[in-house]
């Protein structure tokens, strides 16, 4: 069966539903994360570390749910080895989702801490060796710089796929089918 023939919409809905559900003992983490997010610009270093720990835990939780959902589905498909199916789930579902979630959280963190896009531009130019243009020269009404645009530009300059779909298409082209 080809990866593109799988019921991704149904699986994505199942993942979203499972991610949205919280056990009562997890509620305090969600509340703490919301509270820290609202106060990010004024927090101390240890509070930022706690914020990053909570966000990392949320991303890990979502990726485990994604992995388990695809593993359960792929286990029913054919008699291929479990290891091969798990590799497919990791490469086609989990890794692209991880890339997308990291992008979202990095941009959200920079936006919520009220970091000016020009500071991000200078930081990336100095540390990544890439100048990230946040403005469009020659445009009469310049577009407001955006952290997301800068991040996407940086990903393109460094050769990082710009979307989950691009990663999936490249892997599908290389492999052809789910083994």
Name the features.
mainly alpha; 179 residues; 68% helix; 0% strand; disordered C terminus; single chain
User: How many domain units?
Assistant: 1
Series of secondary-structure elements, N-terminal to C-terminal: HHHHHHH
Structure summary, number of beta strands: 0
Our Rg estimate from Cα atoms comes to: 19 Å
The helix content is 55-70%
Q: Could you say which overall geometry the principal axes of the C-alpha atoms support?
A: flat
Written description of the protein model:
It is built from seven helices and no strands. With 179 residues, it is mostly helical. The chain has one domain (3-175). Helix 1 (8-20) crosses helix 3, helix 3 packs antiparallel against helix 4 and helix 4 packs antiparallel against helix 7. The radius of gyration is 19 Å and the shape is flat. The N and C termini lie close together (8 Å).
Could you give a short description of this structure?
68% of the residues lie in helices and 0% in strands. It has 179 residues and is mainly alpha-helical. It is flat and about 55 Å long.
Q: Secondary-structure blueprint of this entry?
A:
Blueprint: H1 8-20, H2 27-38, H3 45-75, H4 82-112, H5 117-127, H6 147-158, H7 164-175
Helix pairs in contact: 1-3, 2-3, 3-4, 4-7
């Amino acid at each position: 069966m080809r990866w593109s023939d799988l019921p991704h919409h149904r699986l994505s809905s199942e993942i979203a539903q499972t991610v949205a559900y919280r056990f009562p003992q997890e509620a305090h983490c969600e509340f703490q994360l919301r509270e820290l997010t609202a106060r990010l610009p004024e927090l101390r270093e240890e509070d930022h570390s706690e914020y990053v720990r909570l966000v990392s835990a949320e991303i890990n939780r979502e990726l485990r749910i994604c992995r388990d959902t695809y593993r359960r589905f792929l286990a029913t498909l054919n008699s291929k080895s479990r290891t091969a199916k798990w590799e497919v789930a990791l490469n086609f579902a989990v890794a692209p989702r991880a890339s997308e979630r990291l992008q979202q959280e990095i941009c959200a963190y920079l936006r919520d801490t009220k970091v000016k896009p020009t500071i991000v531009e200078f930081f990336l130019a100095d540390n990544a060796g890439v100048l990230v243009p946040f403005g469009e020269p020659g445009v009469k009404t310049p577009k407001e710089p955006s952290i997301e645009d800068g991040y996407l530009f940086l990903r393109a300059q460094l050769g990082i796929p710009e979307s989950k779909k691009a990663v999936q298409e490249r892997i599908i082209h290389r492999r052809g089918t789910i083994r």
